[in-house]
Amino acid sequence: GKPIVAVVGRPNVGKSTFFNKIAGRRIAIVEDEPGVTRDRIYTEVEWLNHKFTLIDTGGIEPESEEIIPAQMRRQAELAIETANVIVFLVDGREGLISSDREIADMLRKSKKPVLLVLNKVDTKEQSPHYFDFYELGIGDPIEISSALGLGIGDLLDEVVKNF
Ligand code: GDP
Ligand code: MG
């Protein structure tokens, strides 16, 4: 079947905004309140003659924190299991925090190709936190602004290279 690309990351990094930008319409709910995506949400995408399914997920939090209900966490884990490529979104304005590290550990264990994506980089300038993210051991961070639509094409080029 078609490759599956899952968008994962802690709440509020902009997963649903990113998903909607690629879908070209508002399917996923974007909220300032963390953790609003309750189910996995799908859209079909075509890029450079590659067809794939994109999945938005609810945020993943460390198991010790009870912010995200277990069911939502499970949905995200299922998406990771199903995915062929994972887009791991982090917040380029806030910088690296411990939940990013915990998710990175989960993703490394999955052995799936992971693209590390700094979202909310709304200017042409590099995020001041850019180099901190190398600590995650997931390679070169890719900078985008989902809100403004910056860097999305270059990211999709990288996504389809992993099929
Ligand atoms: P999710 O919880 O990861 O799905 O995050 P959402 O897509 O709901 O976005 C959380 C908040 O971040 C919302 O207020 C968005 O408008 C905002 N946001 C998302 N992407 C960007 C971006 O590229 N730049 C800026 N400045 N804000 C963004
Ligand atoms: Mg969301």
From TrEMBL:
Keywords: GTP-binding, Nucleotide-binding, Repeat, Ribosome biogenesis. Coiled coil: none annotated. Transmembrane segments: none annotated. One of its GO terms (biological process) is ribosome biogenesis. GTP 1 binds at residues 9-16, 56-60, 119-122. One of its GO terms (molecular function) is GTP binding. Belongs to the TRAFAC class TrmE-Era-EngA-EngB-Septin-like GTPase superfamily. EngA (Der) GTPase family. GTPase that plays an essential role in the late steps of ribosome biogenesis. Associates with the 50S ribosomal subunit. This is GTPase Der. It comes from Natronincola peptidivorans. The gene is der. The chain holds residues 2 to 164 of 441 of the full protein.
